[in-house]
Specification:
15 helices, Acyl-CoA-binding_protein, 355 residues
Length: 355
């Protein structure tokens, strides 16, 4: 065992032990519980068995299906994904004992994520009111999406070959920035619909030809999902800032400190993390497209200490540069999508040739 593997194993065990005693401020969804369970099972026991006894109950079968959906992931990769998913859930659901991902063990090889800490004024934790609990769910999921976009073609093909049609990864996803069925969820729903169709074709087509063709497109869709999350989060924060400036915090019930000092910087940190060298090409390209945003945020926060003035100028600048965000960026994204399809044709030819 190498030093890096030993450090990863130690971090995984420490995080798993903590999650056993974790008391979330709000109840995690069943999907999130199963995600954590499945990654832990793969990290500890490897791939799921090929079948289950017919006598198992519905709960055990759901656990088995979640475990089976992670087949093909190495135990080391499962440990990394477990650490990321545990940190995401700690940020999303908070902790009644005031411990968040900021105090957890991490490995140098795991993608870096925005760090948040709870409000511990007067020695008490506010639980659901903490910054960790208030982190937008979409932003908290970006590190996991970055890790998914880094999946190699052999690992992707192996995973699909072992995944039942009803347990497809995209089939189990849902909008992260808005409640399903609402207007705000439309962009994510459209993306998920396209991704599910691609996954369905890949799973139902015999052999690996279709899967090889769609592998770059699958990774690019993950990048597009991250881009949509960033766009929606920024738009919501901008609207909240405008509402606060016009109506005031008391009438709107929204805190300018939360939007300008917490949420908007987290967007910038997420983008900066996406362009780091260890990230996959797709994540880095999307991060480069969005890179002007953290530059704008950092400039106003460092040069103008007054929160009202700096946040107002941020909104004005974003509105003035609308052409970049709604014309240039979509054009660049469409170029990446077409490039992914073109490169997919090359991978399909490689698969056909048996190279």
């Amino acid at each position: 065992m190498t030093a890096g593997e030993s450090e990863l194993t130690a971090a995984f065990r420490a995080k798993a032990n903590f999650m056993k005693t974790w008391k979330p401020a709000s109840t995690p969804s069943n999907r999130d519980r199963l995600e954590l369970y499945a990654l832990h099972k793969v990290a500890v026991s490897g791939d799921a068995p090929s079948s289950l006894p017919s006598s198992v109950n519905a709960a055990e079968r759901a656990k088995y299906q979640a475990w089976r959906s992670k087949s093909g992931i190495s135990q080391e990769e499962a440990m990394k994904l477990y650490l990321q998913e545990a940190d995401r859930q700690l940020r999303v659901y908070g902790s009644t004992n005031g411990i968040t991902s900021a105090t957890s063990s991490r490995t140098g090889s795991a993608p870096q994520t925005p760090q948040t800490t709870p409000n511990t004024a007067n020695g008490s934790s506010s639980g659901a009111g903490s910054q960790a609990a208030n982190t937008p769910r979409g932003l908290a999921a970006i590190p996991l999406l970055c890790a998914a976009a880094a999946e190699s073609r052999p690992a992707y093909l192996r995973r699909l070959s072992q995944t039942p049609l009803e347990a497809g990864w995209w089939q189990r996803q849902e909008p992260l920035c808005s409640s399903p069925g609402t207007i705000g969820a439309i962009p994510e729903n459209i993306l998920l619909m396209v991704a599910r169709f691609v996954e369905h074709v890949s799973l139902t087509t015999p052999g690996n030809l279709a899967a090889s063709f769609f592998w770059p497109f699958h990774n690019t869709l993950l990048g597009l999902w991250m881009m949509i999350i960033l766009y929606i989060t920024v738009m919501k924060s901008m609207l909240a800032i405008v509402a606060i400036l016009v109506w005031g915090t008391r009438r709107t019930g929204i805190s300018l400190t939360r939007e300008w000092d917490d949420t908007v910087p987290l967007v910038g940190q997420s983008i900066s993390a996406m362009v780091e060298r260890h990230q996959a090409l797709t994540s880095r390209l999307i991060g480069l497209i969005m890179l002007p945003l953290p530059t704008i945020v950092n400039f106003y926060k460092s040069s103008i200490p007054n929160m009202t003035v700096s946040s107002s100028l941020f909104v004005v600048t974003m509105v003035a540069t609308w052409w970049y965000w709604f014309i240039i960026s979509p054009i660049l994204m469409s170029c990446i999508l077409w490039t992914a399809l073109a490169s997919g044709a090359c991978f399909a030819l490689i698969e056909f040739a048996g190279v």
